[in-house]
Amino acid sequence: MIHKFRYEIPIEGKKEYVDLDVYKNDLSGLITAEVEFSDVESCDNFIPLAWFGKEVTEYPEYSNFNMALNGLPAKLI
Prior knowledge:
The protein is an alpha+beta fold. It is built from 2 helices and 3 strands, in the order βββαα.
């Protein structure tokens, strides 16, 4: 089971917002940010915010499902 706090942070000048997840318990210390887009054009034109870290969308070990089963990824990105 994953335990985390989620904060919705508005992005200035955009209709999108950041979902900031702060993980607890076994995943303590991990923080992820996610932006959902309403259309492909918004996604293609998005410039990540300065405080964003490495993109982990394509890393299956960072999915909530995998982290619930396997814990914190062995190699942090």
